[in-house]
Structures are given as C-alpha cells and as structure tokens.
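Researcher: Please translate sequence to structure tokens.
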Amino acid sequence: MSRKLTKNRKEILEKISKKKYSLEEAVLLIKEISFVKFDESVDISVHLGIDVRLSNQMVRGTVKLPHGTGKNICILALVTKEKELEAKEAGADYVGLDFIEKIKSGWKDIDIIIATPSVMNQLGSISKILGSKGLMPNPKMDTVSTNPGKSIKEMKSGRISFRADRYGIVHASIGRVSFSNQYLLDNIKEFMITMIRNKPSTSKGSYIKSIHLSTTMSNSISLDSKSFLNA
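Model: Translation complete:
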C-alpha cells in the first residue's frame, strides 16, 4: 500500500509541475495531493507586482470569506472595562488589559488581537513583540475598533486579515481540504477579488505576478491568473 501511495504521489507531483492550472482544476488537484490523515489547511500565495519599499504600495486589509477558514480563531480583546462584557459575549477567547503583562512574559497563544482606540497608548510596551508576530492592532486590518463586539463576531465568522510580506507576497489560509469544491472556489474567488480591489494606484505593470495554491504539507500548484477577471 505504501509503495502504491509513493507511486501515486510521484505521478501527481510530476503532473502539477508541468503547467498553470485553472482555478477549477487546481481545486480538484489540491485534494489529490493531500496524503496526510489530518484535515489540512488550504493556503493561497499571491505574488504581487508592487514595490514594497514604497509605503503607498503596501497591500493589506481584510476579506470576509463566504465559508470561513475552518479554523477556530483565538482572539484576545484588549478593551476598556465597560467593553469587556461586549467582547466576551461576542466570542473573544481572552478579554482584558491584564493580558498585556502576560504578553510581556512570553505568552502568545492567540491568533488575533482586537483593541479599542482608547487603549492603543497602553500597547507601547509590547508594540515590538506584537509587531514581530504580526499581532499589532491596526485600523486598516479592522483590529482597532470602536465596536469590538462586531469586529470579534466578523473575525470568528470568517473575516481574515492579509498583508504583503517584504517580498510582495500575500499568504492566507482560505479553507480546509475537507471543504467542498464549491466552498473552496467561493473563498478563493472572494479573496482574489479583494486582492485586485486593493491594487495601489501607484503600482504599474503586471499586478498579479503569480498565484499558488497548496495544503499544509503539499507542494504548490501554479494557477493561471486568467482565471480571475481583470487580474
């Protein structure tokens, strides 16, 4: 059985390296190249034609995936006392400014931090820690909010944040291998629509340089950017 699996794996890996695939073909293939026994994350990487050295070409924001990511997002709400109940009822996993000291001590079991504007001046002592982990609340990422309950509910229901890295590549999880093909298609299309809408006006030439789809443990599949209108 293991020999057959190895042979199948080899054939598929050879196959996916030969061309760019349409979105529909890639979604079918992504399930074929998943050989592990756990429900892998399906991830997308989009290489953008931007100059990351220029602040006016930074691409970042949020997108509401129609079917979520399939992952339980752990949220810390750094809010004032009067907003704590709202944050808890909205589904925040951890609530309260006491967690600032825990973060200083090395605690990091969170995926997202939601903060209210009035507490941002208290995050100066942990800004470097949060910045290095991509956790620093930012209004452009909808993680600084005067309505933390609403923001928390949206994050829990499938809103994700994204940001181009220093190479101009945006990485994001857009579902699970167990998702139906249609769910994956819907999520990827919504993600790419948002990427295209976020094109900086100062970016010239080809904006979408390449798109790759992969699972947690798999090789990546190259997508034909023509799968996306105006890409």
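Researcher: Any highlights?
Model: The CA atoms of residues 189 and 228 lie 8 Å apart.
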